[in-house]
Amino acid sequence: MAELDKKEEFASELLNEESLDNIHHVNNPVLDVPAVEKKYLGKATSYLKDGNKFIFTDGKASVEIKVFSDEIIRVRLAPQSSFLDDFSYAIKKDLDLHPISFVLEETEEAYLVKTSVVTCRIQKEDFLVSFENTYGKVINADHKPMHWEENVDFGGYYVYCTKRTAPDEAFFGLGDKSSNLNLRGRRFSNWNSDTYGFGFNQDPLYKTVPFYIGVTEGDAYGIFFDNTFKTYFDFASERNDRTSYWSEGGEMQYYYIHGPQMMEVVKHYHELTGTHFMPPLWAIGYHQCRWSYYPEANVREVATQFRKRQIPCDAIYLDIDYMDGYRCFTWNKRYFPDPKKMIADLAADGFKTVVMIDPGIKVDEDYWVFKEGKENRYFCRRGDDYFMEGYVWPGRCQFPDYTNPKVREWWGTLYRGLVEDGVAGVWNDMNEPAVFGRGTFPGDVRHYYEGFRGSHRKAHNIYGMQMVRSTYDGLKKLQRNKRPFTITRAAYAGTQRYSSVWTGDNIATWEHLRIGTLQLQRLSVSGLSFCGTDIGGFTGEPDGELYTRWMQFGVFSPFMRVHSAGDTRDREPWSFGPEWEAICKKFIELRYKLLPYIYSTFWRQHKYKEPILRPIALIEQHKAQNLLREEEFAFGHHILVSPVLHPGQQSKIVYLPEGNWYGYFDNILYAGGTEHQVDTPLDEMPIFIRGGSVIPEYPVMQYTGEKNIDALRLNIYYNEGRQDSDIYIDHGDTFAYEQSVYNEKHFIVEGKKDGLTVTQNQEGLYNERFDTYKIYFIGLPFAVNKIEVDGVIINTSMDEDNSPYFAVEKEFRKLTIE
Ligand code: GLC
C-alpha cells in the first residue's frame, strides 16, 4: 500500500512537473486508445551478473548497470526487460576502457556496485539509483525512480530520469546553447535546428550534445544521456530541487562520469566519445570567408590584398555560389572558368581553398550526383516509400541517407573532383538537416541507422554528424592520408572525431560577441573544442570597433574565421579603415606568433583529452563565485584572456586564478586568486600568461609554413615554485604522429628567490629543422650573474630590438640561471 501511495505521489508530481510543454504525444482519438500512464520502476528484487554488467529487475522492467571503468558507469532501462541494440554513434569504436576492479555487495536495503572511486547504489525498496564517492558522500541521486510512458503513435517509450539537485549545484556543458555558462534554472531541448539570427537563450540551436557536468560542494560529475531522439534537460528550472532529462523515444541510457574535478569529467567524456585528430597546421591559422567570394577575380583580389597589406591568412572560402546552380560537386564555369588554375595560384601564394557542400541534391535527371543517388537508392524515403523531397538552395532536392555506410562511402568519393582541383578543406552546412519552409524532414522519414533502422525522429540529431563523417573519411582517402579539414554546422556528441564546428548564423551585435564567448567555452567542455564563431557577426553590420574586438576574441577562438552573409558590406580586415586595420593586423599576427602554443594546445586536446577553452569554473571549481564567472577563460593551461565585450570600454575587471600572472603586452606581474581592474585600450585586450610557463613563439608569417624556423623563440616567465609546460611539434600534415613521428617537449620550470632552473626532456621520433632555442626570460626578480646549460656557462646575446636572449641548443637537459 505504501508503495502504491508513493507512486501516486510521483505520478501527481509529474503531472505538474511535466504536463505542460514536454509531453508530446496525444492519444489517438480515432483508435480510442486508453490514456497512457507513466510507469515507474517498482522494487528491485533480484539481479544477474554478466561480465562487467549487472541486470536488476523489479519482475517486469530491468535496469542494466555496466561498469566501463572505475569512473564511468552506464545505466540503462528496459521497461519490458528487453534492451535495445547496444549501438551508439557517439561512442568511439575502439573503446579502450576497463575497470580496474569492481564488486557487487548486497545489503538488506540495497545493491552496491563498487569501483575503486565510486559506488552505484540501487535502493531495493524504490529502485532509486545513486552514486557516492568513497567517503560515502552522495554525488548524484535519483529523486524518483526512472519512469516511462508508452508512445502510442510511434511505438517505444518516452523515457524519464529525475535527479535530486543541491541548493548550490551548478551545471555546465550541453554544446552550443546560447545561455549563461551555468545552465541552472533553465530548460533546454536538443533538436538540431537551422536558426538564422538566433538570440540569447534561444533553444534549440544547431547541435545536440546531451552531456552535462554538475558541480556541487566542490565535487563535479558528468551525465551523458546518449539518446539521439529529441531530448530535454531541465536544470532545476521547473523545481528548484530537481533536475530531469527525458526523451521522446529510444532508451533511458546514461553514463555517470565520476570527477571530482571537472577537468577529469571532461577527460573521461572524451574517453567515451573521442577527441579531435591533430588538425593540419594551416587549419589553425586565420581564415577569410564570406557568402560569397565570386567570380574568380574577386577571390584573387581578396588574396592579393592580404599579401599586399601583409596581413597573415591561410585559407579562403568559397560559399554556395561557386557551384553550378547550387549543384554540389560542380563549378559555375562562368564565375570560375579554370578552378584548378585559380586554386593552384592561390596555393602558390600560401592560400588553401575551402569549399561549401550541402546535403540537398538537386532533383535533375541530367545531374550525375542525382542520377547516381537515385539509381543506387541512396536518398531518404518517407514512411510509405515516397522520396523525401524538400526545397533548399538548388530548389527541389533529395537527401542522402548518411546513416547508411554505403551512402557515406559513395558521398566520400564524390569529393574526388574537388580534391583533384586542389580544394584543401570542406565546409558542410545545412545538415541539421535544414529544409526551407518546413524546417527539417518530417518524422516518418526512414533511415538505415547502421542497420538498426529508425525514423527521422531517431536519426535527425545525428544526420549532420554522419554527413561530415563521410566527408572526413572521403577526404582522408582522396588526400592520401593527409589530415582533412572539415567544418560542420550540425553535430551530435562525438562529432569531434570528424570535424571542427562553428556556431552558425550569429548577428553583428555586442550581445552576440558575448554569446559567442559563452558558446565556445561551452562547446569546449562538451567535447567540441575545435570551434569558432563567425567573427564580426554573420548578419547585420558591425562597426570597426565591434569587428576589431571580435577579431581579438578570434585570436583565442580555436577556429578563427571571419564570415558574413551575402547582403552585408565588406568584411575583410581592412574594410573598416586604416585605424582598425592596424589593430586587426596586430592581432592576426599575434595568432601567428602563438601558433606553436596553439598547436601544442590542440595536441593536449587530442592526446590528453583536455578541452582547449577552459572556463574559470573548470580551473577552480572549489570557489562558489567561480561557478558564475564567464567573461574570462583560459586557452590551454598557460594563457588566460578576457575579451572586451562592450563598446567604448576603457577598462574591465578580470579574475585571475590562483598563482601569478603576467600581462602579455606589458609583462606586469599580477597576483592570482583575485580580481584586477585592467585597462583595455582598443589595440589591446586583457591577455595573461601564467607564471612559470614556457611559451613558444614563431616569427610572424603570412601563412603557416611560409618561413623555416632557424631558432625557436621561448618566452620563459619567472615564477617561484614549479610549473610544467609542453611544446608539441610535427610536420603539420599527415597522420604519422599516430606512429610517434612528433616531438613532444616537456619543460619543468622551478623558480627560487635568486635562481631559476629549466629542465627539458623530449619524446617522439620527429626531428624538427631548427637547432637552437632563443630563450627570453621574463620577470626575473634577480640580476643575472650566470647562466649554465648542461654544465657549460653561456653568454647573453642581443636581438635586433636590443633585447637580451640566450641561444641554447635544442637538446639541452638542464639550464640554470642565477
Ligand atoms: C547558411 C550558413 C552560412 C552560409 C549560408 C550560405 O546560412 O550558416 O554560413 O554562408 O548558409 O551558404
In short:
It comes from Sphingobacterium bambusae. With 818 residues, the chain is of the alpha+beta class. Helix content is 20%, strand content 31%.
Shape: globular
**Unreliable stretches:** 1-33
Number of strands: 53
CATH class of the domain at 2-273: Mainly Beta
Rg measurement, Å? 27 Å
Ligands bound to this protein structure = alpha-D-glucopyranose
Biggest sheet: strands, sense, closure? Answer: 10 strands, antiparallel
Give the overall pLDDT as a whole number.
Answer: 95
CATH-level-2 architecture of the domain at 2-273: Sandwich
| CATH topology title of the domain at 2-273 | Immunoglobulin-like
Beta strand %: 25-35%
The CATH homologous superfamily of the domain at 2-273: glycosyl hydrolase (family 31)
Q: Structural class given helices, strands, pairing?
A: alpha+beta
Q: What percentage of residues falls in helices of 4 or more residues?
A: 10-25%
Q: Gap between N and C termini, in Å?
A: 79 Å
Number of helices: 13
Task: Report on the architecture of this protein.
The protein is α+β, with helices and mostly antiparallel strands and 818 residues long. Among the domains are: 2-273, Immunoglobulin-like (Sandwich); 708-817, Golgi alpha-mannosidase II (Immunoglobulin-like), CATH 2.60.40. It has 13 helices and 53 strands. The strands form 10 sheets. Strands 1, 6, 7, 8, 9, 10, 11, 13, 17 and 18 form a 10-stranded antiparallel sheet that branches. A hairpin with a 3-residue loop joins β6 (102-106) and β7. The protein is globular and about 80 Å long. The relative contact order is 0.08. Residues 1-33 have low confidence and may be disordered. The site of alpha-D-glucopyranose (GLC) has 9 residues, from loops.
